[in-house]
């Protein structure tokens, strides 16, 4: 019976191609809009997350305020305190930062100078185009060695290999540093890359470069199996109890990614809800074509009823036609929405992440529209009096 109803539905659609095409158009546009908006939104969220992940989604950085750096609380021992008192931390690395001029011969540029421990490269999974990160012995012996960001290496060494050469770093006075590594270029989205940064050993920084015993930042890696945002909250609570809310700033790429994804998801859902209105408009078109179909086939309905067709059979026939129409429109809409998503993500240079949930949502909603708006015409057809239907002109 169902197969026969579907055949009748396609026969009816072929009988009025233009009207069917116009009715399908509303469903196709509605489904395509929902699929495209949700898929593009998901692709945007994933691309944002991938960009933010340059800084490490399992990393948290604490920046003591300038007023707290002279109190003696934020020192190297504070790293051990954090590691001991806050659950979920794998390692806490002290770090110092400042700006300086880097020069090689006649080439020079301003850059960020970071004094870090030798483990920093492994903890942040830094990758190199040449050389490697400095060693722990380089830090212990306060050697003047440096790892260059990709932009700095390209600027200072346009025609030669940087590793094995020397650069001068100007602060209060110029000092010569041996280049031991060059970092790979990273996307600078959200300023999380190190293309314009040079790294020197932590002890070299504090005793030969700036001469300080304070710590400018603590780079924290969250232990595997722990949620970064929850651990960030624990660190925040711990620091609030020690120095208050104004004594530090905390940055977590995971929190930033979550916030960006929430904003993108909310905006996409809002736009998808607006796009779904076109599905309702398409549903009105379905009801219109079904009412016209009932009027045109009144005699046919009368004949079928006279031959013993029950109201349920007649109702099922017209609901099947409405469903067939909306399912066909839904399939075409999913295909069109996927093509639009591919075009937009390709244009924006994002990675396409198909939203299969949007396929199910859009198809399910279009089928609901078919049943909802096909019900009244189907009921009207099933209630026709056979004698009146046979005498209908």
Question: Helix and strand layout, with pairings?
Answer:
Blueprint: H1 2-15, H2 17-52, E1 59-64, H3 66-69, H4 76-85, E2 89-104, E3 107-116, H5 120-123, E4 128-131, H6 136-140, E5 145-148, H7 150-156, E6 166-170, E7 174-183, E8 197-201, H8 202-209, E9 217-222, H9 228-243, E10 248-251, H10 253-296, H11 298-306, H12 311-347, H13 356-382, H14 386-390
Parallel strand pairs: 3-8, 5-7
Antiparallel strand pairs: 1-9, 1-10, 2-3, 2-6, 2-9, 4-7, 5-8, 6-7
Helix pairs in contact: 1-12, 2-10, 2-12, 2-13, 10-12, 10-13, 12-13
Unreliable spans? none
Mean pLDDT: 81
Query: Reading side by side through the largest sheet, how are the strands ordered?
Result: 2-3-8-5-7-6
The number of helical elements comes to: 14
């Amino acid at each position: 019976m169902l197969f026969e109803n579907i055949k009748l539905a396609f026969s009816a659609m072929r009988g009025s191609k233009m009207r069917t095409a116009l009715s399908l158009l509303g469903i196709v546009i509605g489904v395509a809009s929902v699929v495209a908006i949700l898929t593009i939104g998901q692709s945007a969220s994933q691309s944002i997350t991938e960009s933010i992940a340059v800084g490490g989604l399992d990393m948290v950085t604490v920046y003591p305020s300038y007023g707290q750096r002279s109190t003696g609380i934020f020192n190297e021992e504070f790293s051990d305190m954090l590691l001991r008192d806050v659950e979920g931390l794998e390692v806490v690395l002290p770090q110092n930062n400042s700006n300086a001029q880097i020069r090689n011969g006649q080439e020079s540029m301003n850059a960020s100078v970071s004094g870090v421990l030798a483990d920093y490269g492994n903890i942040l999974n830094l990758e190199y185009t040449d050389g490697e990160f400095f060693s722990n012995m380089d830090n212990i012996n306060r050697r003047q060695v440096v790892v260059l960001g990709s932009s700095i290496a390209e600027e200072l060494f346009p025609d030669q290999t940087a590793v094995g050469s020397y650069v001068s770093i100007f602060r209060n006075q110029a000092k010569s540093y041996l280049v031991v590594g060059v970092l790979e270029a990273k996307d600078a989205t959200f300023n999380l890359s190190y293309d314009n940064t040079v790294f020197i050993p932590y002890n070299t920084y504090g005793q030969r470069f700036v001469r300080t015993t304070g710590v400018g930042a603590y780079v924290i890696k969250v232990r595997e199996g722990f949620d970064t945002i929850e651990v960030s909250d624990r660190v925040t609570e711990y620091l609030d109890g020690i120095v208050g809310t104004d004594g530090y700033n905390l940055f977590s790429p995971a929190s930033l990614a979550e916030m960006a994804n929430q904003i993108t998801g909310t905006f996409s859902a809002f736009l998808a809800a607006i796009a779904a209105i076109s599905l309702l408009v398409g549903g009105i078109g379905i009801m219109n074509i079904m009412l016209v179909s009932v009027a045109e086939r009144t005699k046919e309905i009368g004949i079928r009823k006279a031959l013993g067709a029950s109201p349920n059979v007649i109702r099922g026939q017209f609901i099947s036609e409405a469903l067939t129409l909306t399912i066909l429109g839904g399939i075409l809409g999913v295909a069109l929405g996927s093509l639009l998503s591919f075009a937009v993500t390709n244009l924006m240079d994002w990675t396409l992440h198909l939203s299969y949930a949007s396929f199910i949502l859009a198809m399910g909603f279009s089928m609901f529209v078919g049943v909802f708006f096909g019900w009244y015409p189907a009921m009207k057809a099933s209630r026709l009096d056979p004698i009146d239907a046979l005498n209908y002109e």
